[in-house]
Specification:
362 residues, alpha/beta, Rossmann fold
């Protein structure tokens, strides 16, 4: 045996394995966080990147470009500096990226409180309109006197009223922080829709206020659907599925990071408040959404299960109807069989008698 050739061959096989493995193992799903105007460090964001290290995190604080979004699965848009906006050029980049399909875009909303709220609301709705979404952030603020972090504006959105089709997205989540949120509504066929009262096709409501939610107004323009002081349950986080491209649009009443205190681990800023007094699961909610943002086929499949089951039930009902019809026909035949039998016997006796008679005569 030529051991030298064998050794060279084995080295060749090992080199193939060594050079091919990293290319697959190193491919992490890319998450782009567009925090326009961020200066310094956001500790909630840093913790998210450390906790969810299975993803490649890419932070943009200035202009968003096509290179930034190259290969990305998820884009999160947070207007840290409310004096800035998403430019037309950036909107073109975002729309071209979404046209690739299998993407998730998360737009952070805000309440209309103070000088920062209205421009953030305007930018959020500008993005949503540009990408053809039905979702909108309402031009008001929603508070909650029951489910909150010590003050009504520190809304702890609850998952108990989540739409059945998407309950898997809030698995492990009872409450999550929306610090000064705007209500989530919809815009369909030229009209604004109160999502707390009406479902819109392909739009699913995940997180709500408790029944003690209330609409507040602080700055013009006013809400197109709600009245100040109106009470009830209001939506603070919803998603929209875009079937033809298999894209997902997320709209939250406030941001997962920044905006004073974000959804992701607010206990990092106020441990006693959000870990002990008012425990919440914002980090779980965020990680659930990001997981399905990079596994969109799985998300669409799960959401479609109820529709598939309904279709199968309809087909089964139709089949059962046909079976019942056939059973009726069989029963009808069975009920008439004795008459046929009697007639046959009588005919047989007549024929037999006739044959016997003629044979006797012969």
């Amino acid at each position: 045996m030529n051991y030298r050739k064998l050794a060279l061959f084995l080295m060749f096989l090992v080199s193939i394995a060594v050079f091919s493995l990293p290319s697959t193992l190193a491919e992490k799903p890319k998450i782009v966080v567009f925090m326009k105007g961020l200066m310094g460090t956001d500790y909630q964001l840093v913790n998210a990147t450390n906790d969810l290290s299975q993803y490649e995190w890419y932070i943009v604080t200035e202009t968003l470009t096509a290179d930034d979004l190259s290969g990305a699965s998820v884009l999160i848009i947070i207007m840290v500096d409310p004096t800035m906006t998403v430019t037309d050029e950036e909107l073109t980049v975002i729309k071209n990226w979404l046209d690739e399909g299998h993407k998730m875009i998360w737009v952070a909303g805000e309440a209309d409180y103070g000088g920062e709220g209205p421009p953030r609301q305007e930018t959020a709705n500008k993005v949503l309109e540009a990408i053809g979404s039905k979702l909108r952030i309402d031009l008001s603020e929603v508070t909650d006197t029951e489910s909150n972090g010590g003050q009504p504006y520190r809304v702890l959105g609850v998952s108990d009223n989540c739409d059945e089709e998407v309950k898997f997205l809030v698995a492990g989540v009872h409450r999550a922080l929306f610090h000064g949120p705007g209500p989530v509504i919809a815009y369909e066929n030229g009209e604004y829709v109160r999502l707390n009262e009406k479902k819109v096709e392909n739009v699913y409501r995940l997180m709500w206020t408790s029944e003690y939610g209330s609409i507040e107004e602080y700055n013009p323009p006013t809400s197109p659907v709600y009245t100040p002081g109106e009470e009830g349950r209001f939506v603070v986080l919803a998603i929209e599925l875009v079937p033809d491209k298999k894209n997902v649009i997320v709209l939250s009443g406030d941001a997962p990071f920044d905006h004073y205190t974000g959804m992701y681990k607010p206990e990092l800023k106020k441990y006693e408040r959000y870990a002990l007094e008012y425990p919440q699961q914002g980090a779980i909610l965020f990680s659930n959404l990001i997981y399905y943002g990079v596994n969109i086929d799985e998300l669409f499949a799960i959401v479609s299960y109820p529709k598939q089951i309904s279709q199968l039930q309809s087909e089964l009902s139709t089949a059962q109807g046909k079976i019942s019809e056939l059973e009726g026909q069989v029963a009808s035949l069975q009920s008439s069989m004795p008459m046929y039998a009697v007639g046959g016997i009588i005919a047989g006796l007549v024929v037999g008698f006739a044959i016997a008679y003629f044979m006797k005569k012969k």
